[in-house]
Give the backbone structure.
Amino acid sequence: MSDSASRQRAVFVSGASSGLGQAIAQLGLERGYSVWGTARARGRLERLAENDHFHPMVMDLNDRSQMLNAFCAAEDESGGFDVVVNNAGFGVFGDLCAISEEDWDEQITAMLANLMALIRDQTRALLRRDESATLVNVSSLAVEFPLPYMSGYNVAKAGLSALSESLLLELKETNIRVIDFRPGDFRTQFNAGMIPPPSESQGGDAHCADRLAAWKTLEKNLQAAPKAVAAAEALWHAVDRGRQGTIRTGDWFQARVAPVLNRLVPQGIARAVRWRYFGLR
């Protein structure tokens, strides 16, 4: 029996300490994979590390050299990944003009420039292995339904989707399937790391009411959203069926209505519907 036939299948999941990443990693373990999952601190992976087939990794998207070296070591240790899931990311809430240059640069660098470098190395590794594999880039329905006051997040996710579309073309004659996975709202701690807007206008800020309305809608949607495991199940269903291309998942409005609006109605009308959805004037 060949080494590839006898070894346990392996999956790489970035951002596995919570939310979608943790749910994707957990379901991978339940499907019989060995899972290499990342977080900025190893201690945040203790829950998954209770499983003997989980391999905790420290990876920081802000540190390109550390990130690439960590993936290279994991790829060597695993013997090659059958599924690679790029999930890690974060949001910054606020007006573009009010967000600090440091916060903007960190988000765009980590979630787009550095992530592209990681995906390049992952793709090279999968091509060298020359076996059937799936590369998953977790973008967002924000690509089609941009989130208000989250410009950096929208830009990074749109860029990631564009990269996935490029790879679908470049890899079409290989054994690598590419999935642009676009989840909507799911019940996670996504908002926990973001600073909410003040409840009252400061210094005559005319946009305070809109920002507050948008924040409240984001919070309400997360609280009412399906659990993260539902998104993980949708992703693994797509992987198991050998699907590729754009995979959307979320509630009926986000995953069904919003994409149709973008395709079939004038942009002005679609934009008005989006703004109303978030309670904006």
User: Anything to note?
Assistant: The two ends are 65 Å apart (CA to CA). The beta strands are 10-13, 34-39, 54-58, 83-86, 133-138, 176-183, 245-249. The longest strand covers residues 176-183. The chain is about 50% helix and 15% strand.
